[in-house]
Amino acid sequence: MMRNPERDEIRDILNKSKRIAVVGLSDDPSRTSYMVSKVMQDAGYEIIPVNPTVKEVLGVKAVPSLKDVEGHIDIVNVFRRSEFLPETAAEFLEADADVFWAQQGLANEKAYNMLKEKGYPVIMDLCIKVAHAVLK
Asked: What is the distance between the alpha carbons of residues 55 and 45, in angstroms, rounded to a whole number?
């Protein structure tokens, strides 16, 4: 059964984290991924766009996949449809990353179990911007 961490653990994750790789970040300002990432960037987080179809988002050069992110990633925030979460989770396991976070409306039990088995914190179906606003 999928369960998100308790509020205190989510608060700790947000307080400790500095770098957020955003999978599926759009360069269209009207898209949710752009709006959420802009708020997080304005709150002081480093945003790394992960999207093979865009060159740059929010003034940051995009990378095609998580494997292409240089250095450590605190949170991988995912804006891809639920059926793509296992594929993204497999990429996450190859990256130097701590927390897998699927945005509101996104959840996949296979991806959840794959990551929990390896001991990673997994958050699904929760907006990082809302959590940040409520828990900070």
From this structure: 20
DSSP readout, 27-87?
Answer: S-TTSHHHHHHHHHHHTTPEEEEE-TT-SEETTEE-BSSGGG--S-EEEEEE-S-GGGHHH
Residues facing residue 20 across a β-bridge: 47, 75
Domains of the chain, by residue range, sit at: 7-135
User: What is the model's pTM?
Assistant: 0.97
Count other C-beta atoms under 10 Å from residue 62's C-beta.
Answer: 19
Query: What CATH architecture applies to the domain 7-135?
Result: 3-Layer(aba) Sandwich (3.40)
Residue type, 56: E
Could you report the per-residue pLDDT of 4-32, keeping only the tens digit for each?
A: 999 999 999 999 999 999 999 999 999 99
Among 70, 88, 71, which residue's Cα sits nearest to residue 124? 88
